[in-house]
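Hi there,

I know you've been waiting on this one. I reran it after we fixed the sequence typo, so this is the corrected version. Both the input and the resulting structure follow.
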Amino acid sequence: MDLLRSFASVAKTGALSRAASQIGRSQVALSIQMKRLEDLVGHSLLTRTGRGVVPTVQGERFLIHARRILSSHDGALAEFSGGSLSGTLRFGCPDDYAQAFLSTLLRGFAQHHPAAAIEVICGSTPRLQAQFDRGGLDLALVSVPLAADRAILRREDLVWAVPRDQSGLWTDPITLALGDPDTLDHRAAVAALDRAGRCYSIAYASGSLSGLLAVVRSGQAVAVPTRFAVPADLRILTAASGLPPLTRIGITIRIEERHDSPLARAFARHVREILPAL
């Protein structure tokens, strides 16, 4: 199992040095392990390239079996040792969901799995999806249209938000502070205003939630967060403001089912159980 775990780490990181640091071994000791594994298997499993170390064709085939064996092994240990898991998990979470949900999710999971380390990477849904597709995340919480063919964990209203002390009707052109152009809040706001025939200008478009909120708090623009993620110092505009209604979106979790780990599956189950009730 030790050899399989080391091999899976090398394949995941693409470098002996990074894998050695991750599993707590010296690079020399890791190289000896890989040579021993290749001798046992009877095939060359790794090859060096200009960018690091990658599995050979035989190595790719063997990696599928190695991950499956490791997953079964770790799952059995967790089940018969009381269910507490250890390891590191890379979890992607949009900034607004991190602000609204993350502390509750992490605190609850840590009570059951205190030895597990959750590395949180925040960003917009399109950025997280791209990172997930490249293998940079073990699982990710993302926004999707309600029509998406995915298991929706929670449905959220998109709303118009302004500083709490700001009042009055919004006349054209409406100044907006939105996420990147490929995010759902940006697309929903533009589509709603276009349908209503309203003029608008975009004062700020970025994946940085802190920057977006700073513009809104200055009183210079309207933001489009989810209802649950509206900070206490902002307020939601009602229909009386004259702004058109916005769509609802869904929240779902992405996990690589083929290469998941007991820790990833446990955290995904935790999110699926807790998030809908928050």
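Quick highlight: The two ends are 39 Å apart (CA to CA).

Best,
R. S.
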